[in-house]
Amino acid sequence: MEIYKTVQSLQKFVQKQKDDGLTVGFVPTMGALHEGHLSLIRLSQATCDRTICSIFVNPTQFDDPSDLEKYPRPVERDIAMLESENCHALFLPSVKEVYPDSLEATESYDFGFLEKPMEGAHRTGHFDGVAQVVNRLLEIVQATHLFMGQKDYQQFKIIDRLIELTQRPVQLVRCPIIREEDGLAMSSRNVRLNPEARAKAVHISQTLRKIKAGFGHKSIIELKKWGFEQLEQVDGMSVDYFEIVDADTLQNIDDVSESQQVIACVAVRVGGIRLIDNMLLKVH
Ligand code: AMP
Predict the structure, then answer these.
(1) 20 Cβ partners below 8 Å, 6+ apart?
(2) Does 146 contact ligand 1 (Cβ within 6 A)?
(3) Whose CA is nearest to atom 8 of ligand 1?
(4) pTM of the model
(5) Rounded to an integer, what distance in angstroms lies between the CA atom of residue 27 and that of residue 187?
């Protein structure tokens, strides 16, 4: 695997692939890789001729400085994992390389309602930072395909809209959520859970599964209230939000027949760690 730390060297590599008529899949990450990330790499490998992964802990998307500081950065281990997946290239830039002038965003995008609820309401400026870094990385990498996880569902919708707004010629691919054996959605933050919090975290996916089983039998309002209460009553867990929304617009729905796709999304804090998860309840 080639490791590129500068924009110039990476772009030379990409240009060569494109000159050879090859497709280039791009998997942006913040590192501390796990099977969830690797599933994106594998999907890219299966879809595209070349796969580029980036590891960049983007400072502009953290609303909490201590979260940024504590974000795990096991780079050597990440490199070994990518090598064992035969990933073609890793882009491992410094902050200065990604943002040569300043951390301030030069563009702002109107994502409409997509950025308002859930993560948008609880993490000020988060999606501005996400849009800024993904746009910059796409500008650098010039990939033909972009692979992103359903795990960060609202983020996926924002990036889908970003691509539409910027009219970048890149195909966005949504990748399913990879879970631990007990159902906990894999996340780089899971390593920071102490054993007690890790045991409690299993309630998140269990509650989502029960919500899915109850979908169609109970009203959305009842399900939302039940889901919130189930998690809130776990000792030491607090719920930022538990929403059941239209999976396309992220708008609240009262009646399931109003929407072709419905998703339940949740964010909780347990043992000082914030975890998110979601589950599609209705797909068309
Ligand atoms: P991150 O390093 O957390 O920024 O994640 C990089 C990419 O991996 C994003 O597109 C995430 O949605 C995706 N991802 C994170 N966790 C999972 C998971 N458990 N299953 C599938 N994709 C994931």
Answers:
(1) none
(2) no
(3) 37
(4) 0.98
(5) 15
88 is catalytic: no
Q: One of 37, 88, 145, 203 is an active-site residue; which one?
A: 37
CA of 108 to the centre of ligand 1 (A): 24
CA angle at 208 for the pair 181 and 173, rounded to the nearest 5°: 75
CA distance linking residue 277 with residue 241, whole number of Å: 11
Closest atom of ligand 1 relative to the 32 alpha carbon: 2
Is the domain spanning 2-175 CATH 3.30.1490.20? The answer is no
Say if domain 188-278 classifies as CATH 3.30.1360.140.
no
pLDDT tens track of the chain, all 284 residues? 999 999 999 999 999 999 999 999 999 999 999 999 999 999 999 999 999 999 999 999 999 999 999 999 999 999 999 999 999 999 999 999 999 999 999 899 999 999 999 999 999 999 999 999 999 999 999 999 999 999 999 999 999 999 999 999 999 999 999 999 999 999 999 999 999 999 999 999 999 999 999 999 999 999 999 999 999 999 999 999 999 999 999 999 988 888 999 999 999 999 999 999 999 999 98
Answer whether 152 contacts ligand 1 (Cβ < 6 A). yes
> 62: CA distance to ligand 1 center in Å?
16
